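tmp note - phosphoenolpyruvate--protein phosphotransferase
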Amino acid sequence: MGKTNVNMICDVAELSSLFEKSSGLDDFLQAAVSTVAYHMQAAVCSIYIYDDASRTLRLRATQGLEPEAIGNVELRLGQGIAGMALKELRSICVGRATESRDFYAIDGIGEEKYEAFLAVPIRRQLKRVGVLTVQDPQANYFDSSDEQALRAIAGQLATVIENAGLLMALHQKSEKKSVKTATGSRLVKGRPGSAGIARGHGSFVVAGRSGKFRRFEATPDHLTLEDFERALTASEQQLSELQRKTAEDLSDVAQLIFNAHLLILADDEFSGTIRRKIVDGEHPADALVEVVNRYIDIFSASPNPRLKEKVHDLKDLGHRLMENLVGGTRAPGDYSGHIILADELLPSDVLKLATENAEGFIVQGGMTSHIAIICRSLQKPMVMVDAQQFDLFDGVSDLLMDGSAGTVYIQPSDEILAEYAKYQRRADALAAALPMKPESYTADGTRIQIFANINLLSDLKLADEFRAEGVGLYRSEFPFIIRNDFPSEEEQYRVYKRIVESMGQREVTFRALDIGGDKLLSYQDEVEEANPFLGLRGIRFLLRNKDVFTEQLRAMLRAGAGGNSRIMFPLIASVDEFVEAKELVLQCMKELDGRGVEYNRDTKLGIMVELPSAVTLVEDLAHEVDFMSIGTNDLIQYTLAVDRTNEMVSKLYLAHHPAILRAIDRVVSVARSHRKDVSICGDIARDAKMIPFLLGVGIRKLSLSPRQMFEIQQAVEAVSMEKAVYAARQMLELSRISEMEEFLKNT
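out:
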């Protein structure tokens, strides 16, 4: 019998009305694929349902593939022909699937013998619902009429399957544990946050996961008030020692980060209530659990966001006390051998956990970028995953994470562990055998300077190890973000002075406080902004809060005395903003003169060029500034109107976009014509394939993370200026992204 597409459309329309009469959801979906396969005379028909939260497709019904595949095959959005059809919201019809660039082989489901493949997205307007696919062993079996019919079917099924997807979401948590990936491995693919490899036991610090604080299972029956007093004293000593150690190692950001723990311990209402309950006959462990959970309830219910933030502190403190009370399996507060899993972390949480020897961090994807920057400075790997993927980590005893690739292996095999061990040995050997040279030159002898981006004082040691020629960007916001209040002028001065002193006469560029957007202060008055990236951030915040701005300026000016320091203003959009900021600097200088305080009278003032308006006005700005630094991260975001943290558009965030390259060329050209110093400090500076372009348009100063310097020095040494200039000219003539990518691929 031949294909009967028209009849099929009618039958499936009738089938939709029978949904309520079916014995279950799977029965309905199975009836649908059987009907489609019958009328299209196709060997295989399958339905995949899309989950928007995890951005994955799950096989929910099939006629023709192995029945065991149902519920056990999962594809990422864009993976395979079905995944690509849904991602791009278009039908894909291929005559020979194995020859398609989108083909993705899935072992064990019996599809390798089917060549013809037709996939049609099931959608409601722009909302992704699922994919309807048909397959057949005969190559080129499906034609345009089949595609048209399948699109009509998909449209009729959309409402029913969307509702089905909502129903399945209720059961998703229990099902997720048994899901196999399309590769059959226990691999979770996330997104890179901070480079590095770590192995350990997964420890949840997410409130919803860890829930209430609980008594340890192996708690001795005969514990006394004396045991509690001993645990209390031990906890105080441990926390005081941690506070002392972090104050030495991370003095810029670690001021009193354990003060909440210590204050709670010292609170008589907290410890006194536990004592009274023990005296009244309660077991010390039960009394501790009861009081900690009472505080958790109070803090969680508080309208004050600062109190809500202390819930994790309470749980951490409760765990420390319990370890000291009953004797746990590890040292109290020691996260050695543990990888932290969290849906929400404050910068101070990251700092505390890193101080307590956490091996790495797996966090929910919505985390802000400064969390990743802190992890990089602390040399802790971090991977960002989607919320739904957290279910995969329940009950897991062993994790291996690769922060560079953004991957996490659950229960890694011996083969995977051996491969990563070999990789780590090679990386260590390479780092030891090929140290940084003190100066960088192109293949034909042009001098290029490589500076360090500094986030925390702990980065200074790395900057020296990698022989940085100075600090090209000090992000001054981190002491503000991590602390619970604004650091005073004196506290800032001590931090900035250490940076200047560590660099000697090497150049140090301080960037003024850049908060707003994704960098928020927990103690700042909350202001709801519909779009914080286009709101009160950077220089706008500083000019609105001049008392904060002038305190920082005075601290930077004073710290620069006897050194070689500069001050740079972020997010400048107009000449007026720079002039107003410069006038405040002159006002601060006058004030310091009046106080008889030494400062750097030769402090140069510059701007971050990171807005399209600054590129347009670069000629006018060049008359006013002493130097410019191109911040390509925000320049790309604002020029292309792309939020790189938004997965739906992140692939449009392209450093090699023709508009970005022409903007860089314009800024460099104008700066050099006015004999103004110009540098690059965005992520493009760490991209080896973009080095020829940057050098070719005239960049001679690069600023990047210390750990990336060696690779970039090698890239600089591998290129001649003649070839770099030629490559840059060619790239500036290209107008299409595809042409640019082809050029970069072949050079």
